[in-house]
Amino acid sequence: MKWIVAENYGELSELAAEMVVGEMLTKQKRVNLAITAGTTPIGMYERLTTKVKGKNYLDHVHYYNFDEIPYKSGKQEGITLSDLRRLYFSPAAIAEEQIEILNEKNYQQHDAKIASDGGLDAIVLGIGTDGHYCGNLPGTTRFTDFTTEVPCDERLKKIIVGHFEDPAENPDSYVTLGPRSVMAAKHIILLASGVKKSEAMQRFYHGEVTEAFPASILKMHPNITVIVDKAAGKLI
């Protein structure tokens, strides 16, 4: 496990952007990247946009959303893809043919598709205060799961309802890459910023590997880079 402590969020964002661009340039043939929405990577995407926009030599890079919370009505794209478009795909003018979509309709074929595409070269993840990553919240998936559908009980519905202006759109399930799908990536890049993530990172670094803290499995990956700022890493 490679551990990088950035001075602040700005440095974390720049380091992450540089690392992602590095992945893009490792080969001239197809590069497959799974990327995250959420708040932690906002700065990374701002910097990444300036580094990739208009660069036609990066047309070989394909992007995968690794989870999706659908609208119950199905009338529009899910929350994750919508956020990725807003944060990165649209500002960076990423072509539609470079975006590989995971949703509630195709999740059962998603692992086979990734494999046929050559596998994920890298996956960029955030971590929740409860140790979740992607849609792998405590009590939802097992370490042996591939891409899966997660039924939403009342606990989960309360967690995700804030994503919707209309609570009636809160779905009965969402889909996510499971731990086995994530661990199959060639390189994991894990980001954590702010004091609110410090206890989670302490548990990640020092704690046992347990499904009760889903991200704990990630430190078993043979090629994982963790980038934290000083606030998130202060308890390590």
From TrEMBL:
One Gene Ontology biological process:
carbohydrate metabolic process
| GO molecular function terms attached to this record | isomerase activity
- Keyword Isomerase present in the record's keywords: the answer is yes
Transmembrane ranges, per UniProt, are: none
User: Keywords for this entry?
Assistant: Isomerase
**Pfam families under this entry?**
Glucosamine_iso (PF01182)
Q: Where is the Glucosamine/galactosamine-6-phosphate isomerase domain?
A: 21-219
- Which PANTHER family does the record cross-reference, listed alphabetically? GLUCOSAMINE-6-PHOSPHATE DEAMINASE-LIKE PROTEIN BT_0258-RELATED, GLUCOSAMINE-6-PHOSPHATE ISOMERASE
What this protein is called in its record is: Glucosamine-6-phosphate isomerase/6-phosphogluconolactonase
Lineage of source species: Bacteria, Bacillati, Bacillota, Bacilli, Bacillales
